[in-house]
Every structure is written in structure tokens, then in C-alpha cells.
Automatic annotation (TrEMBL):
The keyword Metal-binding does not apply. The keyword Translocase does not apply. Its cofactor is pyridoxal 5'-phosphate. GO terms for biological process: cysteine biosynthetic process. Residues 216-489 form the Tryptophan synthase beta chain-like PALP domain. Keywords: Amino-acid biosynthesis, Cysteine biosynthesis, Pyridoxal phosphate, Transferase. GO terms for molecular function: transferase activity. This is O-acetylserine dependent cystathionine beta-synthase. PANTHER family: CYSTATHIONINE BETA-SYNTHASE (PTHR10314). Belongs to the cysteine synthase/cystathionine beta-synthase family. Coiled coil: none annotated.
Length: 503
């Protein structure tokens, strides 16, 4: 490490813990969810661990608590003394480029890799290949920036606040761009992933080999053409099969995005709360599993038994509300519970991140179909439709609801079609984006469930069937058009509600 940085370490050593634990206002945004970030980093470590720049030993203690064999390597005498006293283990004197360690399974560092220039980062990563086991990993929790513009905007923002020390850090230290880290990792022979943890920090993982994990299976669902329904000349009808997401529905996209967005903004603590009929709850349960978070969901009691069982299987705590009081009451109860228990309320029905969750869905459709003339999607929270409508601005946009929903100015009423239907207008649903509202009866929706099974071999839920009913109605008025309809989930989780009307 260079001499200027060693001098900085002397200044930082005694005040470091005050900064990371929120007592220095200048660095509050940098470390806003510090404990959570360290837990996420430690969770990824395994085997024999080489920790560079352990500083005062906060991450070291988490690694030791997991029972890992940890070798902390610290260049600063001042930091090393504090860290050894806090952890009870001996810190080795050294740094990212100067160390004497044999083969390890994990190399990890938090808030230190930015002390290296880009050239030194490249040298270091190439050097680590010789000591990492075949399936070993490098974990880097540190500040990086998504773009030059983002970095400059943040510098300008904190200059206006008078945060002199933070601005000096941002201008002096070698904080890389995300694309720079991707390039350095690629050149060094690693696969690279990055997860933003707050507005500054990213949790980066570099591996020799990359294998998909179950929770990676969100998105990139198949799109199929339906050819066994009568259509006008030149009309092609495509269905996006969202049941192929890991949790079995389009709401996996929403759930993972809502949790990640909350993490990015430092809003997540230990518990997540939502009101849901099921699919969002399943997706949230999966997303919470990824981050060791507790999920509590408020569910109207007579909704799909299968979905409730799946949520429980994934670790969710279910609190029932009276079915006759509807989803509005469930939402009120969820919000109050979150306030009483200092939990994070995802609030899918009002969270402005909801429509943004479907950007990738729109991109996948665009890549598969090319020219999209009509897009058809149901409305539960309204996020799927709004997200797609923002992308396919030139397409004819059809929103689907069951009878008993209020989008077409009807009265609130009971309906058997699950997963869609609203009791009040969603806050992020723009009326200007809606070309047509199609209200589908339970009878027509459930009949189409059976027809899809017999005609196309597709086992879908009633909201998917309702969307197809709407698409076929609109298809009667056009020729030579590409129509895309969203099928949110599959039939299996509705068998107990006699979705096929089989006696």
C-alpha cells in the first residue's frame, strides 16, 4: 500500500467504527445498512478464508462466528491493534499485493479494494488465481459507481451538503466504475456478478466457474405461439408462459425487484410484510430466502389453498384476514403490522418500483417477437400492465379484469378468477396507457382454462385464461397483427378450487 493511504489509515483507525455504525453524518449514506451488508458478504464465504483489509474486525467476527478458518491480512498497525483486540485472533501484516498464504477457498474484503489503482486491481486478481481452489470465490464489498455521471452527481450532491471529508474521499480514492470491474474480472479469468447493496456499495463475487442456482431462475421464460384458435388473416397469437419462473408466476419478477430495490435504498432490516392472494407471497418468500429475511403475509383466508401451502413451505408466516373484507382490509392489516413490528412493508399495490419490475419481461418479448402490435395483460396490482405499456407505447394495449373489478367503472364484487381484479384504482396505473378494458366473467374464464388444456396442452390459471379471452375478443377486429398475451401462472395451484370444473 502507498504511504499516503497508510497515513489515512492512522486518521481513520480510531473513528472507523463511529462512521460505519452511523455516528458520523458525512458517511451515513455510505454505511446506512452496514450490518446487513456484512452479513450478506459473510454468508457467501466458505472454507478457508483469506480476508484482506479487515480493519477493525467487524466482518472478521462474522466469519469466525460461522466457524470458518480466517486469515486476516491488514497493512495498518493502528487498525490491526483494534481488530485483534475486538476479534481475539492475530492479524497478519500485509496487503492485497503482499502476503504469504497457501491455497484458500474464499478471498474476501470489505471497503478496502478501492485503495488499489485499476492496474493494481488487475495484478491482484491475477495473483489470486494461483491460491484459490478450483471452485473458490473472491468477495468484494466496496463502493463502485454505475457510471461517471452517477459519481459526479453524488460528488455534487455531497458538496452542497458541505461533506468535505466524504467529497475528498470520492475524488482521491480509486473507486472504479462497475463496467471497469467487469472488464478487470473478465481479463483476469473470472465470472463476475454484482449486487447493489445501497447507493454506494456493491457486493461483487468473482468465481472461476459459474453455475446457476435455483434462485437465479427468474426471467427468460418461454414464449409460445398459439395456433389452435380461429384467427383473422395474418394474426399471430403469442403467450408468455410466466409459470416457468422459479416460483411459478410472473410475480417472481415483482418480488425479487421489490426486495432488491428496498436493499438498494437501505430500507431492509430483518422482516418483510405484504398483503397478497398468493403469487406475490410465493415470490417474496423466495426473495427473502435469498437474503435470510423473515416474511409475514396477510392473506384472505379462502384464497387458493395451494398457494398458501407453498408460501408456508418456503418459510412464510401467514396471517389470515376475513375473505369478505377483501384485499383492502388485508393491506390495512399488513401496513399496521409493519409499523408495529418495525418491518418493511413492500406494499406492492402502491410501490412505484412495481412497474419497473417488468422491464426485463418487455425486453424478452421484444427480442422474441420483434414487432408487437397488441399487448394483453391482467391487472391485480396493475404493475405488469403498466410496466409493459410504458415499453410498448405504439402497441394496442388491453388490460384485463374479472367482473367484480372496478377498472371499467363496475361495482366491486366477488369473483372466482384469482390473481387479477382491483377494488380501487392502482396509484401507478396510468389511464392514458389503457386503450381497452376487457371484463371477463368467471364462466368464460374457467371455460377457457379447459379449452387451453384441450386445444394447446397448456395448464394455466384462470387469470391466464381470462387474458386469452380478452385477446381473442380484440383479435376479431384486426388482421396481420402480432398479439402477445401474458399468462401469469399455471393451473396446478388452483386444483382445489375446481378450476377445470371436473366433477
Amino acid at each position: 500500500m502507498t504511504l499516503p493511504f497508510m497515513e489515512i489509515f492512522k486518521e481513520w483507525a480510531s473513528d472507523y467504527d463511529n462512521a460505519v455504525f452511523g455516528q458520523n453524518p458525512e458517511y451515513y449514506d455510505v454505511f446506512v445498512n452496514y450490518d446487513f451488508m456484512l452479513r450478506e458478504a459473510a454468508k457467501k464465504a466458505e472454507g478457508k478464508v483469506l480476508e484482506f483489509g479487515p480493519g477493525t474486525g467487524n466482518l472478521t467476527n462474522l466469519l469466525l462466528a460461522k466457524g470458518l478458518d480466517v486469515i486476516p491480512v491488514e497493512p495498518s498497525d493502528e487498525m490491526r491493534a483494534i481488530g485483534e483486540n475486538k476479534t481475539g485472533v492475530e492479524f497478519v501484516k500485509g496487503d492485497f499485493l503482499n502476503f504469504n498464504v497457501d491455497q484458500v477457498d474464499t478471498i474476501i474484503t470489505s471497503y478496502a479494494f478501492h485503495h488499489l489503482t485499476d492496474e493494481e486491481k488487475l495484478i491482484a486478481l491475477k495473483k489470486y488465481k494461483s491460491i484459490l481452489t478450483e471452485n473458490g470465490k473472491i468477495i468484494i464489498l466496496d463502493t463502485i459507481f454505475n457510471s461517471k455521471e452517477e459519481k459526479q452527481q453524488m460528488i455534487n450532491h455531497y458538496e452542497l451538503l458541505g461533506y468535505k471529508s466524504l467529497v475528498e474521499d470520492l475524488n482521491r480514492e480509486y473507486y472504479p466504475l462497475k463496467e471497469t470491474m467487469e472488464d478487470i474480472a473478465r481479463i483476469s479469468g473470472y465470472d463476475y456478478t454484482s449486487q447493489q447493496m445501497n447507493r454506494f456499495a456493491h457486493l461483487q463475487v468473482l468465481t472461476h466457474k459459474k453455475f446457476l442456482k435455483p434462485l437465479d431462475l427468474v426471467g427468460n421464460t418461454p414464449l409460445v405461439e398459439l395456433t389452435n384458435f380461429e384467427l383473422n388473416k395474418g394474426v399471430r397469437l403469442f403467450a408468455k408462459l410466466e409459470s416457468y419462473n422459479i416460483g411459478g408466476s410472473v410475480k417472481d419478477r415483482l418480488a425479487f425487484n421489490l426486495i432488491q430495490s428496498a436493499i438498494d435504498h437501505g430500507e431492509i432490516r430483518d422482516e418483510v410484510v405484504e398483503a397478497t392472494a398468493g403469487n406475490t407471497g410465493i415470490g417474496l418468500a423466495l426473495a427473502c430466502l435469498q437474503h435470510d429475511l423473515q416474511l409475514t403475509v396477510f392473506v384472505p383466508e379462502k384464497f387458493s389453498v395451494e398457494k398458501q401451502q407453498l408460501m408456508k413451505a418456503l418459510g412464510a408466516n401467514i396471517i389470515h384476514t376475513p375473505t369478505e373484507k377483501g384485499m383492502t382490509y388485508a393491506r390495512e392489516q399488513a401496513e399496521q403490522y409493519a409499523k408495529d413490528n418495525n418491518a418493511y412493508y413492500t406494499n406492492q399495490f402502491e410501490n412505484l418500483s412495481n412497474p419497473l419490475s417488468y422491464d426485463q419481461l418487455a425486453q424478452e418479448i421484444q427480442a422474441d417477437v420483434g414487432k408487437v402490435d397488441m399487448i394483453v395483460a391482467g391487472a391485480g396490482s396493475g404493475g405488469t400492465f403498466e410496466g409493459l405499456a410504458r415499453h410498448f407505447k405504439e402497441a394496442h394495449k388491453v388490460i384485463v379484469e374479472p367482473e367484480g373489478s372496478i377498472l371499467s367503472c363496475g361495482e366491486v364484487g366477488n369473483h372466482r378468477i384469482e390473481g387479477i381484479g382491483v377494488e380501487q384504482w392502482p396509484v401507478f396505473l396510468s389511464k392514458s396507457n389503457i386503450d381497452v378494458v376487457e371484463s371477463i366473467s368467471d364462466e368464460d374464464g374457467f371455460q377457457m382454462v379447459t379449452e387451453l388444456a384441450k386445444n394447446e396442452g397448456l395448464l394455466v390459471g384462470s387469470s391466464s385464461a381470462a387474458a386469452l379471452c380478452a385477446a381473442l375478443k380484440q383479435a376479431q377486429h384486426v388482421t396481420d397483427k402480432n398479439i402477445v398475451v401474458i399468462f401469469p401462472d399455471a393451473a396446478e395451484r388452483y386444483i382445489s378450487s375446481n378450476i377445470f370444473n371436473i366433477n
